[in-house]
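Quick check before the chapter quiz. The format below is the same one you will see on the exam, so make sure you can read both the input and the output lines.
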Amino acid sequence: VQLVESGGGSVQPGGSLRLSCAASGFDFSRSDMKWVRQAPGRPLEWISTINTRGYTVYANSAKGRFTISRDNAKNTLSLQLNSLKTEDTARYYCAIAISGGARGQGTQVTVSS
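Here is the expected output.
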């Protein structure tokens, strides 16, 4: 199983980023997937899950600002981040949405003025 995140960077508050996760080594189309994040000194925080049918759920902190999506033909999971806030600064990970599911190495998102 391999999950490789990309797309992170530094943006000003109010900015946008699009994160991508390239998946391989497992049946992506049959796997529920999720995004989580971790800020320094904070516990891992769940952001959003998308199931195999494309049904999505979001944490309150992400609702209305973040959009999760998947492309099963390309084995890719995405997370569109809009209206970013300083408190969104964290390392973002994609993961298989099962207990103990594999997680990537993450991509850093820094929001500051």
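If your answer matched, good. Strands lie at 2-6, 9-11, 17-24, 33-38, 45-50, 56-58, 66-71, 76-81, 90-96, 107-111.
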